[in-house]
Design goal:
alpha/beta; GMP Synthetase, Chain A, domain 3; 2 domains; 4-stranded mixed beta sheet; 19 strands; about 35% helix; about 25% strand; binds adenosine-5'-diphosphate; binds zinc ion
């Protein structure tokens, strides 16, 4: 039995959902054409008039928007409401360049918080819960989103923000937190610190965690579940859409339901822009349906995933997306081979290593080099130097089997790789420095 925040809409038959989407889309297209010069110009260039969009089936006629468009229009170029109607600004983390700012009206905040409330209830959250939010508060959307969602559910909310890990743990223990929200890399760090402080996973009252804002693997999920003694759920979002809560996992743990009454997803071929059929792997594109201040038509997320409308045991009818394996721009091309950092993470954790690693890519004599630094746990560290070099070779072979290219593997002492309290930075691509 699943908990819903808004049962009726979360279980709507697909045909009805499409009808609602179509109605909202037609209104939105007219609104942005009439009110936002940026959209008008883009649509005129493509020869599209608002009347050409009669339902969701016409979505493909509209032009795409990219992060470059958002940077180009910075700060007010895509604003669709007077600034006086806006009540909030949030900003992207700037993982891949200049930050983008996004505006919210009161209504935009309301629907964003609804999305997060749905996510909390989908993992069993109720007003009985104590929700510890250790995503960063501030311009980053993580803290504000889950905070608002937790209030809506009526849970007791602990607005911890990120960092100060020992204090996080003290509050978790003293106040009996039952749900924790943060990035998966920070969850792993909290798990590690709990152990160092002498706690077992049974000592805390946590039952679930809602983790997102960065790619993480199934192996990482198991690692966190074991170290915290919880069920770990995924949540996805991006500032451009609202923040966390664009999609969320239910207790089935097989992908994230997209809040389709607010966002229409498409999967496209990132090279040609062609819309791909359900079940294909490609770039995720979103159109917002309810946003007033900063509506986005066909925004290219650069996140690579697969969509599926397979029936879910939780009863929700919203389409599901797989965990994005990373953004198209996280993908490293090393000696001509496409490599996602998450593939390396899978191998490391499968082989029993810690999720504390760093990937360095460089170029020497016109050849790409790949160095992977993996931290040993203190138990593993007691091995002799000879054993370490055998392990490095074994691990390098395992990565080669996965990727087709062999890295230089470095097993490094405990605590030598910086921990992340927010989004982890795992990759250093030094080739960019030479370009
Ligand atoms: P930035 O683009 O600067 O990182 P955001 O903080 O808005 O700004 O981050 C949104 C991005 O974070 C998404 O486009 C996606 O790449 C990544 N992301 C968010 N949630 C997840 C998740 N659950 N799994 C994988 N990646 C995620
Ligand atoms: Zn479900």
């Amino acid at each position: 039995m699943s908990n819903y925040y808004q049962a009726e809409v979360e279980t709507l038959p697909t045909e009805e959902l499409k009808k609602i989407q179509s109605e909202k889309l037609v209104k939105l297209v007219k609104h942005v054409y009439d009110n936002v010069e940026y959209y008008r110009k883009k649509m005129d260039e493509k020869g599209i008039k608002p009347e050409d969009v009669k339902s969701v089936n016409d979505l493909h006629k509209l032009p795409f928007l990219t992060k470059a468009d958002l940077r180009d229009a910075y700060p007010y170029g895509l604003l669709a409401k007077p600034l006086t109607d806006c009540v909030r600004i949030q900003s992207t983390s700037g993982t891949t360049g200049k930050r983008v700012v996004v505006f919210y009206t009161q209504h935009d905040i309301e629907i964003w918080e609804q999305c997060c409330a749905r996510a909390i209830m989908a993992v069993g959250g109720t007003k009985e819960d104590v929700v510890q939010v250790c995503y960063g508060y501030g311009l980053f959307t993580g803290g504000a989103g889950l905070h608002g969602g937790s209030h809506k559910v009526g849970s007791l909310t602990l607005p911890m923000s990120s960092g100060n890990t020992e204090r996080q743990i003290q509050f978790m223990m003293d106040l009996g937190s039952t749900i924790i929200c943060c990035t998966p890399s920070y969850a792993a760090y909290i798990g590690e610190t709990l152990k160092e402080m002498g706690y077992t996973p049974d000592d805390n009252k946590l039952k679930a965690g809602i983790f997102g804002a960065e790619p993480w693997t199934e192996e990482m999920r198991r690692d966190i579940e074991n170290s915290l003694g919880i069920k770990a759920y995924d949540i996805y979002g991006l500032t451009e859409m609202c923040g966390p809560g664009v999609s969320f996992e239910c207790t089935e743990q097989t992908g994230m339901h997209i809040n389709e009454d607010f966002f229409i997803p498409e999967i496209i071929d990132p090279d040609t822009g062609e819309v791909l059929p359900e079940g294909s792997k490609g770039e995720l594109v979103f159109t917002t349906l309810d946003k007033e201040a900063f509506p986005l038509l066909r925004y290219r997320t650069r996140d690579i995933c697969v969509l599926s409308r397979k029936k879910c045991s939780c009863g929700r009818t919203f389409i599901k997306m797989t965990k994005p394996m990373g953004r198209s721009d996280d993908m490293l091309i090393i000696r001509g081979v496409n490599v996602f950092p998450s593939q390396i993470e899978t191998v490391l954790l499968e082989q029993g290593y810690s999720p504390n690693y760093r990937i360095e890519v460089d170029r020497a004599n016109n050849n790409d080099t790949l160095d992977v630094y993996v931290e040993l746990t203190s138990e593993q560290f007691s091995d002799t130097v000879k054993d370490v070099s055998i392990k490095e070779k074994q691990l390098a072979e395992a990565v080669k089997t996965m990727l087709g290219i062999k890295p230089n593997m470095h097993l490094v002492p405990p605590k030598s790789i910086a921990r992340s309290e927010g989004k982890a930075v795992r990759v250093v691509d030094k080739r960019k420095l030479h370009d």
